[in-house]
Amino acid sequence: MNPLVYAVASISLILVSQILFKKGVLYLELRPDSSAGLLLRLWRMVFQKHIFSGLSLNVVAAGCWLLALSHLELSFVFPFLSLNYILIPVFSTILFHEQLSNYRLLGIGVICTGIFLIALS
Amino acid sequence: MISKTNPKRSYRVRSRADITLGLLYLGVDILVSVAAQLVLKNAMLRLGAFDAGAGWLNYVATMALDVEVIGGLSLYGSGMILWILCLSKLDLSLAYPIGTLQYILIFVGAWWLFDEQISPLRLTGMLVICLGAFIMSVDLHKK
Q1: Which range marks the domain in which residue A17 is found?
Q2: Of residues B43, B44, B135, nearest to A110 (C-beta)
Q3: Mean pLDDT, to the nearest integer, of B93-119?
């Protein structure tokens, strides 16, 4: 099995966790409880179902990243993390109807080219 | 796509103190995140390549209990917290381009500490990614 699979798994899990964080924060924004103290609000945030799932996925993502590091050179695998510069805005556009400006589209294209060059190296 | 952004709130004016503190968080975040990757890579070089066959559970258990792995992951977690703190003070349009320093430091560290061979193709790829991050940040404050 190509060890790049571990890196891609880790990056995808980070992507999903970011989406879950955004969902969780939006969920909490609909139910503001400014009367609660800081610790209580932090507690509710961590144990909000989406945010908690996102945090758990991050732990799995870190594990996958370690497996990728056990096979691949750091200077090869690390730049693949920039895939999330591309995937997060794309998914934010689809799921949360955020705007994707021309500069962002151009930047996404340039980053794709860079990742392609790294993959070839 | 229809923008839901209220034009009056399209970007915040940051105070000088906010920017200074944000840059401080960002600087420490970059150092801590790079250190995390280098420590983790060092640990994984010692533990050897993972084999998905028999003994995988043993490998994962050894990994999870390794002092260097735990230390590296703690640095990694601290980096994430610092990044969030930084974003509360700085706009992404400033944080993204400065954050690309991470790539350069990772390359220097991997070359210096682990004798990784950085081919011209790989170096070009890294610089192109940094360029892309710069282009993306041109109008990121108008989110």
Answers
A1: 4-120
A2: B135
A3: 94
Mean pLDDT of chain A: 91
Token reading at A72: 């691949």
The CA distance from B39 to A28, in Å, is 36
Q: How many domains does chain A have?
A: 1
> B1-53: per-residue pLDDT in tens?
444 455 555 556 678 888 899 999 999 999 999 999 999 999 999 999 998 88
Q: Give the residue numbers in A contacting B (CB under 8 Å), as ranges.
A: 1, 3, 6, 62-63, 65-67, 69-71, 73-76, 78-79, 82, 85, 89, 93, 97-101, 103-104, 106-121
Residues of chain A positioned with their CB less than 8 A from the CB of B142: 101
Instruction: Check residue A19 and give its pLDDT.
Output: 92
Q: Do A12 and A60 touch, CB atoms closer than 8 A?
A: no
Buried b (16+ CB within 10 A) or exposed e, B53-87: eeeeeebeeebeebeebeebbebbebbeebbebbe
Option in A70, A79, A97 nearest B4 (CB): A97
CA–CA dist B139, B143 (Å, integer): 8
Residue B52: name the closest of A6, A112, A40 by CA.
Answer: A6
For residues A7 and A78, give the distance between their C-alpha atoms in angstroms, rounded to a whole number: 9
| pLDDT tens-digit map of B52-82 | 888 899 999 999 999 999 999 999 999 999 9
